[in-house]
Amino acid sequence: MNQLYEKRAEKRENVNQYFSVEISVSSSAQIYQFKIWDISSQGLCLVVRQDSHLMKYLDVGKILNMKYYRPDTTVPAEFLKTQIAHITKCDHGPFTGHFLVGLSILDN
Q1: What share of the chain is helix, strand, coil (3-state, %, to 5)?
Q2: Taking the model in full, what pTM does it have?
Q3: Which helix (H) or strand (E) covers residue 106, if one does?
Q4: Of 70, 84, 60, the residue nearest 15 (C-alpha)
Q5: For residue 2, what pLDDT is reported?
Q6: Buried (b) or exposed (e) across 43-68, using 16+ Cβ within 10 A?
Q7: Sign of the C-alpha dihedral computed for residues 35, 69, 41 and 64 taken in this order
C-alpha cells in the first residue's frame, strides 16, 4: 500500500490559519506584503526576492510585529509578535533567486 504521510515532524498549527502577512520595519517607510507558503520545514514561510530592499532588515532571531490576514476576508487582520526562524537561499527550482524566510509566531 502506497500511503502519503507528512515527513516533517514539527507542529504545523498556523499554516492554514493565515493567507498573507504585512511587514513594516521601523527604519523604512515601506510596507511589504507577502503570501504565506507552506514549504518551510517549520511551516510558515515567505518567498522574498534576493534583491528585495526588505532583506536588509531581516535577520534570523529578529522579532517583528507582523500583521496577519486570514483567507476569510470578513475576519479582521491581527498583529502578532513573530520571530524570523530561518533565512534560506534558493539556488535551484522555482524559487531560484529568492530567499525562503521562515516565521515563528510567538503569540496568538
Answers
A1: 5, 45, 50
A2: 0.78
A3: none
A4: 70
A5: 43
A6: bbbbbbeeeeebeebbeeeeebebbb
A7: positive
